[in-house]
Amino acid sequence: MKVVPAENDQVFMQRAYELAQQAEQHNEIPVGAVVVYQGKIIGEGFNQSILLNDPSAHAEMIAIRQAGKYLNNYRLLDCTLYVTLEPCPMCAGLLVHSRIQRLVYASPDLKTGAAGSIFNLVGTSQLNHQIVVDNGIMVEQCSELLSGFFKRRRSEKKLAKKALKLTSELK
Fold this sequence. Notes:
Elements: H1 9-25, E1 32-37, E2 40-46, H2 49-52, H3 59-71, E3 79-85, H4 89-98, E4 102-107, E5 132-135, H5 139-170
Helix pairs in contact: 1-5
């Protein structure tokens, strides 16, 4: 059981953060993910649900699909997933089914987090696989990116609502 040394966590989370920034450029929720095997990135992704009209196109899902193709296997044994936001239940289930060994996430998700914040799907003993979880790497940068994104989106919606109201009043 080979685990990527902790000193590499910062490097891989930095790449996930760069991918999250790409998601934001596409007006997607800024989440990025990378899968690492034997010290090498073998899969990466960023949220693309809106872009692809696919509710399953989360960063983790995309990265894991690439990693499976790279390994030519649906089991990602001895792999670590780095992601900028704690996985949702859908993605946590995917991690269990793909047999990811280790999960490293930056920001907790206090609304839908399924790796310890709301509940712990990845560590449930009733399931046939549990995942080692570490968190807090680059938490400030990743949290700020997410907060800034949602603040901007709320502001845009508020402006659009005002514009619609003004248009209605002018008629």
